[in-house]
Each structure stands twice: as C-alpha cells, then as structure tokens.
Amino acid sequence: MAVITCGCTLLVLAPLFFVLVFLVGTGWSALNWDFFTRLPGAAGETGGGMTNAIAGTLLLISLAGVVGIPIGVLGGTFLAEYPAARLSQVTRFAADVMNGIPSIVMGLFAYVLIVLPMRHFSALAGGVALGVMLIPTVMRTTEEIVRLVPHSVREASLALGIPQWKTTLRVVIPTAAAGIVTGIMVGLARIAGETAPLLFTAFGNRFWNWNVLRPTAALPLQIFAYAISPFDDWHRQAWAGALTLVSIVLMVNIVARYAASRQVKSR
Amino acid sequence: MMERPVVERRAAALIDHTTAIQAENVHAWFDRLHALRGITMTIPERKVTAVIGPSGCGKSTFLRCLNRMHELVPGARVSGAVLMDGRDIYTPGVDPVQVRRRVGMVFQKPNPFPTMTIYENVAAGLTLAGEGSRKTLDEIVEQSLRAAALWDEVKDRLRKPGTSLSGGQQQRLCIARALAVSPEVLLMDEPASALDPASTLRIEELARDLAKDITIVIVTHNMQQAARVSDFTAFLLDGELVEYGPTNDLFTKPRERRTEDYITGRFG
Amino acid sequence: MIATRPAPGPVEEPSARTGDRQFRVLLATMAAAVPVVIGAILVALISAAWPAIHRFGAHFFVTSTWDPVAGTFGVLPFIYGTLVSSALALLLAIPLGLGVAIFLSELTPGWLRTPVGFFVELLAAIPSVVIGLWGIFVLVPWVRTTLEPVLKSALGFLPLFSGPPLGIGMLAAGLILSVMVVPFIVAVSTEVMRAVPSGQREAARALGATGWETTRTAVLPYARSGIIGAIFLALARALGETMAVTMVIGNVPQIKASLFAPAYTIPAVIANEFTEATDDLYVAALIYAGLVLFIVTVAVNALARLLVNRAARGPSVIRE
C-alpha cells in the first residue's frame, strides 16, 4: 500500500513540478525590464510589456479588498462571537457553498449588477466580482482566528467595564489581527489570479487606466489573451506574465503560511 | 449553647463595619446545574474578605455574581439580590458595564492584553472607554502601577509588551489595570494560584495594602493564604455558605463541623 | 491614594447597551451578506436570462443547435461537454486523490506530512489561466504526440479512442481538470480520515489486520460520507472550471463519442462568446446557461458540505 499511495502522491505532484519547471524555464528568459515598464505592443509586433496589466491587477485587488474585507472581517467576527445563532449556522453553510460557486458565474453577476446599468465595462465591475469572491474566504478565516482569541482576554476587558461591542472591536479583533491579515493575504492572492470573472467586467485595456469606471487591464486577462494569440513573442510574454503572477501568489502563500505557523507557536 | 457567645461576637464584628456589598439569597445556575444555593452575606468595606472551599463549591461563581460576570457564560442565570449602596445591581435598568467599573476583577491566570504594551494595558480601561487626556493618563498609569507595587520594576520599559513580564509581574500588571479605573471593590479569583511562592507573597502583601483604600474579596483554595491575608473568611460547600466570620475565629474556633473538617484537611 | 482620586462619577453611558445592540446588528448585517448575495445572484441571473428562459424554456436543455445567427440556442452539447470532461477528471482524480489522502493520513511520517500537504495546496493555488497556458504549450502537444497515439494503438477499436489525435479536445480537458480538482479531494479526504478516532485503527490492528486492511475496514468506511463529500466538492469545481478548460478543449459544440474530439463546456462558451454576443437574446441565452451552472454547482456544493460536515463531526455516538 505504501508504494501505491506514494506513487499516487508523486503522480499528483508531478504536474506542479512540470508547471513550475516550464514557468521558470520559459518565463524567466522572457522577463526583462521592458516587461515591467512598457505598455503592450501592437498585435504581431515584438516587444512591449505588461506594466499596465500589473497596475490593473493592483487596482482590481484594491477594489476587491474594499468590497470584501469589511464584510468578511465583520461577518466572520459575528460567526465567532455568536456561534450558535441561527444566522451564524446559515451563513457558515452559505459561505462554504459560495466558495464553490464558479468564478465565471461571479463575473455574470457583476455584469448584470454593474455593467448592464452602466452600459460599459469597468474596473469597478471587475473589483466587485473579485470582492464578492473574497468574502467567504476572509469570513471563514476571521471566524477561525477570532475564535482562537482566549476567553480570558475578553473577560479581562469586560471586567474593566468595557462594553461588549468595544471589547470585540478594540480588544478581540486587534488580538486576532495578525491572523486575520494572513487570511486576507491568502484570499487576495487567490483572487489575483482569477481570469474568468474579469472577462466581461474589467474587460481588459491596452493602455493605462486608473479610472475605476473605465475598463482596465489585468495580468491574468493579458496572459489569457496572449496565450491564445498566434504570435510567438506574445506567447513568450504570456509565460513571463504567468511567472510573475505565480511568483506573487506563491510568495504570499508561503509567507502567510510561515506567519501562521509562527503565530501558533507563540501562543 | 456553649457556642452562643462566639456567634454573637462574630455578628458584632461584622456590624462594626460599613457594608460594601450585601448579598441576599443569591442563587446561580449553569443551565440546570444549581451552583449557588442562596448565599446571604455582608462584605465589609476596606477589608479583605476571603472565600474558601473545595473546588466546585461555587466560590468563583459567587465572586462572579458580584460584578455580573457570571451572566456572560451562555446558559448562566442568577437570582437574589446584590446590594451596593443599598441598590440591587441586578435591578433591571442597571447597566452591568457600570457595575463592572465599580467592582473590578483579577483572574486566576494573568491575562494582560497580548497586543498592548505595559502602559496601554494599565490605561486600557480608560482609553477604551474614551476617557482621560494624555497627561492624566500618564499620572493614572503611574499611580496604578505604584499601587500594584510594579512601578519600580517597569518604569523604564512601559512601551514593552505586557506579555514580556514574568507571571507574577503580569498578575500585578492586571491588578494595576483593574485599579486604574478606580473601582470601589476588587475581586480576586485565586490570583496567586498560577504563581511561584515569592510572587504569591507579593500578591498577598498587595491585597493587604490595597485594603487600606478599597474593598477586597479574594477567592482561594489555599487556607493558609486566606488566614494570612484576610480579615473575614467565608466557607462555601456545595453552593451553600457554611460559615462566615472573622478569619481568626473561623480558623481557630470553627462553629460548624463541616468547617472544622475542611480546615483540618479531612476533605476537600 | 486610590481613594483620593475622584471616582469617574456616574458617567451616564446609555450607549453601552444600545452600542452592543447596534454593533451586533452591524455584524449580523455583514454576516447576512453571504446568503443575501447567493439569493441576489439567483435573482440577477434569472432576470437577465428571462428572454431566453421565456423563449426556450426546457427545450434549451435538449436542443443541440447553438446558432447565434439564426437565434436558436440549445445547450445540450455544452452540458454533454461539461459532464463528460468532469466525469473524466473525477475518474482520474478520485483514485489518485484517495491514494494521496491515505498516504498523508495513514502512512506518512510526521516530518513529510507538512511539506507534502503544502505542495498539494500550492497546486490548488496556481491560477487557472497559468495551468491553461501550460496545458496549451506542454500538455496538449504531449497528448497529441504521445498519449493519444498510444491509446489509439492499444484501444483504438473502442469508439472512445478513435479519430485523429488532435491534442486539444475532451481528453486534454479531462486531464487538466483532474490536475485542478485533485487538491480538493486530497485536502478534504485527508481531513476526514484524520478525524477517524485512532481507537478504530487500533481495534482493527488488534484483530490482526495489516496496514491496508486496517485502512480498508476501519478508516474508509468511517470516513465514507466525508470522502463522498470531497468528491462532490471536486465535481462542483470541475463543472465550473473555466479558463484552463477553455484553453484546451477545442471549443466546438458537438457530441462525439471519441475523447479525442474537440468539445465545449458551459463555462467555456460563456467565457468565449459573452463579449461577442451582440443581440439581447444571445446574451440572455449565455446567462441562462450560467444560471444552470450556478444552480447545479450550488446544489452539488451544498450536498458536499452536508456530507463533509457530518463526517468531520464524526458519528454522534462518539460525541456524547
């Protein structure tokens, strides 16, 4: 049994290995200063970069954070502080279900909610689609971390004559803050790589854009567009973009994991 | 009949003092568990009153009924009255938050706020309530740390985390934190049970010192501690008040057989 | 000294309890956002898809013509493509995933468990579009030049493995989906297997069971509902996975017996055609397809969660 299951493990990890090998092997050679500093070139032209796409992804993630973090953190605090409430049970289940809703459906939702009434694509719509996807992740991690805050800390505050709500807001949440931030980082890293919800919300843009009401470029969108294009140079740039994206995502995951393990130890 | 004079003397001893808290027929439950079965006792002002008894006798629960902390446990209930200045703190309309500001509490395990510095911990009761200017805060923090006999040890590192202190120092930090909001009563729930003997001694001395200004109620399972530190002692067993009187009398001439059994170590 | 300082008089703070109530309402509102959003998605999709729902009704699911020019829309080929690619993915991912889960929960020495678990998580963290990129340039050529010719020469008599080896198509989509869903099976199954009380294993061991027998008789039956839940979770992922599939499946709305043939899935058609859809009926038809995907994935996820939650809690006998 050991041999078979060990073989399964190697087989499952093989794609990870191959993806990383090809990413680094192909992407590294395509990475250069231009890639980070220049706008995309015209179709078929060699050169150009993804600077606007990287900026666009940052813009989208910030918007998503504005939508998703407050709802996630405060809602997660509710789940932790009133674990037995009917609403908590419903929300916990709904959050798990929502985590599994396909990202393309979130894109449709943002399209109907924002693009249709506004009559054009926008960074806002993309940010909302990603922000909604962020909610369940942040909510469930916040719940878990806030629950870990020792009861004695709440008691200490309540016994000082601090009202319950201030105890939660000023003592419990700050005590859990490091863990909550870790959870938020992992959640942001996850949505940073999402493409499907952006196709018909943020839409993509070949130029700079900082206006949230206009379409914006995004790194995953650009990778997709270049990957399915017929041009070799764009393929190279797609690999470079993928390497950049994966480096960011993996780095955040590794740092978050390290931080989380340190927090556990320091308790 | 032989006991009568003793009883009378005890009653007299209590009557001599101003009352800080008057508990009347206090019952407490955890869901269906009847933890306190009608406690009636008078806690004198600016004295140390010890509550002793075997574990599970309800002594901590009783303490937590005095500042309305008991009701925070899900499924917990209280009945009866706890009077301060003649007013029942359980009257509808009394804000438990205000009760807890008048009746502070120190817990079994030191529980400084982990994300706060020493200074912030002491000031927390005021800053979180949005009170106190910078200058008065500085003053109050120093006063409170002095009162908790911690000032000299920490005055040079007020910006260090509260959790960087030793266990005994942390407990005195918690005492300073409780004192900073100027409570009239300080409840101490086995405050030294997690500490080494030297730190224990310091906490005991502190309790005696503090009683010059405020009322102290201390729960302990350690009879020597009760004997050393308190003016009055109450013995609880199975949620009932078995005996209550001046500490010296209770330990030397217990009136009840059950008290005698307990203090001589025959059970518990 | 304490007594000399004026007590903080009866600062009337009626806000204390009102504050508690208001704060609780605020938190509850945020928590309620999750079920509300799920409801809002349903309402939004139904309203936007209404022209198509009204026009095609249930015929939508049994019609295999997808002709934007003629205004005829049927999703049968997309449903077929979605189901078959997902089934193929699960066929590969279930045995592999369970193998890894058994390895992680029953066999691995502690020092190896954390890194292996971490790598499996990393696999799940790689963005779909990156997996798709790898699919186009690495996996698909390998499928075309190696896997499909081998399958064809060995099993070519079966209709499943007939036709020219194109690389892109159902087989490549199934493979890439299996890579993407296997981490979910591993993570959840490992968790539920670890939740099996060690007493169960010891009992089997005491009866003289070998390692594999112990796993088979004591662990797997106990963890069964959780494992089925894990499979449903993976299924929901596979059904909704968009980018990687779009990039390798070939995007031809057809129903072919051969796994070598190109196909199309619901998420892929939405991804590809939504921005090109010019008239309202076309958009509504795509949203209708998305609505179907939403309802199916929510149902599958809900079922999965019920099973997993039950397994993670363990049988009630143990709890009491």
From TrEMBL, chain A:
<feature type="transmembrane region" description="Helical">
    <location>
        <begin position="93"/>
        <end position="114"/>
    </location>
</feature>
<dbReference type="InterPro" id="IPR000515">
    <property type="entry name" value="MetI-like"/>
</dbReference>
<keyword id="KW-0592">Phosphate transport</keyword>
<dbReference type="InterPro" id="IPR005672">
    <property type="entry name" value="Phosphate_PstA"/>
</dbReference>
<keyword id="KW-0813">Transport</keyword>
<feature type="domain" description="ABC transmembrane type-1">
    <location>
        <begin position="54"/>
        <end position="256"/>
    </location>
</feature>
<comment type="similarity">
    <text>Belongs to the binding-protein-dependent transport system permease family. CysTW subfamily.</text>
</comment>
<dbReference type="Pfam" id="PF00528">
    <property type="entry name" value="BPD_transp_1"/>
</dbReference>
<dbReference type="GO" id="GO:0035435">
    <property type="term" value="P:phosphate ion transmembrane transport"/>
</dbReference>
<keyword id="KW-1133">Transmembrane helix</keyword>
<keyword id="KW-0812">Transmembrane</keyword>
<feature type="transmembrane region" description="Helical">
    <location>
        <begin position="171"/>
        <end position="192"/>
    </location>
</feature>
<keyword id="KW-0472">Membrane</keyword>
<feature type="transmembrane region" description="Helical">
    <location>
        <begin position="53"/>
        <end position="81"/>
    </location>
</feature>
<feature type="transmembrane region" description="Helical">
    <location>
        <begin position="120"/>
        <end position="139"/>
    </location>
</feature>
<protein>
    <recommendedName>
        <fullName>Phosphate transport system permease protein PstA</fullName>
    </recommendedName>
</protein>
<feature type="transmembrane region" description="Helical">
    <location>
        <begin position="238"/>
        <end position="260"/>
    </location>
</feature>
<dbReference type="GO" id="GO:0005886">
    <property type="term" value="C:plasma membrane"/>
</dbReference>
<dbReference type="GO" id="GO:0005315">
    <property type="term" value="F:phosphate transmembrane transporter activity"/>
</dbReference>
<dbReference type="InterPro" id="IPR035906">
    <property type="entry name" value="MetI-like_sf"/>
</dbReference>
<keyword id="KW-1003">Cell membrane</keyword>
<dbReference type="InterPro" id="IPR051408">
    <property type="entry name" value="Phosphate_transprt_permease"/>
</dbReference>
UniProtKB/TrEMBL annotation, chain B:
<dbReference type="GO" id="GO:0016020">
    <property type="term" value="C:membrane"/>
</dbReference>
<dbReference type="InterPro" id="IPR003593">
    <property type="entry name" value="AAA+_ATPase"/>
</dbReference>
<keyword id="KW-0813">Transport</keyword>
<protein>
    <submittedName>
        <fullName>Phosphate ABC transporter ATP-binding protein</fullName>
    </submittedName>
</protein>
<feature type="domain" description="ABC transporter">
    <location>
        <begin position="21"/>
        <end position="263"/>
    </location>
</feature>
<dbReference type="InterPro" id="IPR005670">
    <property type="entry name" value="PstB-like"/>
</dbReference>
<dbReference type="InterPro" id="IPR003439">
    <property type="entry name" value="ABC_transporter-like_ATP-bd"/>
</dbReference>
<keyword id="KW-0067">ATP-binding</keyword>
<dbReference type="InterPro" id="IPR027417">
    <property type="entry name" value="P-loop_NTPase"/>
</dbReference>
<keyword id="KW-0547">Nucleotide-binding</keyword>
<dbReference type="GO" id="GO:0005315">
    <property type="term" value="F:phosphate transmembrane transporter activity"/>
</dbReference>
<dbReference type="GO" id="GO:0005524">
    <property type="term" value="F:ATP binding"/>
</dbReference>
<dbReference type="GO" id="GO:0035435">
    <property type="term" value="P:phosphate ion transmembrane transport"/>
</dbReference>
<dbReference type="Pfam" id="PF00005">
    <property type="entry name" value="ABC_tran"/>
</dbReference>
<dbReference type="GO" id="GO:0016887">
    <property type="term" value="F:ATP hydrolysis activity"/>
</dbReference>
<dbReference type="InterPro" id="IPR017871">
    <property type="entry name" value="ABC_transporter-like_CS"/>
</dbReference>
